Dihydroxyacetone kinase subunit DhaL
Amino acid sequence: ATAVTNGVIIDWLARFHDIVAKQRAYLTELDSAIGDADHGVNMDRGLAQVVAMLDQPADGSDASTGALLERIGNALLTSLGGAPGPLYSALFLGAGAAAGERTRLDPAELADSLRAGLAELVRRGSAESGDKTMFDALDPAVQALQKAADDGAGLGPATAAAAAAAVAGREATAPMLARKGRASYLGERSIGHVDPGAASATMLVIALVEAVAQ
Ligand code: ADP
Ligand code: MG
Ligand code: MG
């Protein structure tokens, strides 16, 4: 695809769920080290419901990319539990509000939309860089996407750059001291483990690369 259409977005969510379902044990293992061992099951169960909702026959409300992203944001809020529910929801609601009436997003528009979504996520959870959260994977990803778009990259290379940045951001959470969420209760004992939310957020970006490649 050269632009993100509603078809790409629906495929994106389905692929996100597929990856999470396959990596469910890994996500739970990460959360058992610094949390309550439910991130894998939480994400798998919540995303399965969201994908099922997206499969329902179109009711005409998805005329625009913004409307679909907002529908996903609302579905995440009702379906996804724990800390990530309102956070991933805010990401999609903010992205949808920014995408507005457009019916396709080129790389620069995608970057703008996701940057707005990330701002919503931060407004919701007040995570900053280095707090050891999903933000530490998503923020570098959106920055890399933006830079690639500014450099004139197509959607494939631009999303691939975002995924590489997300992977690096995820790995960089290991030495961090957690300052948000459950892991923050562990203090120094949170050091030395990859953040579960940074791992699932990286899967979100990898799923986008896959959806765009179709
Ligand atoms: P819970 O902590 O409620 O059991 P999960 O285990 O599903 O929920 O998700 C934990 C993840 O949520 C963490 O690894 C972290 O990335 C993310 N998280 C928690 N609080 C915040 C926050 N305030 N901002 C951003 N991400 C957060
Ligand atoms: Mg947990
Ligand atoms: Mg929990």
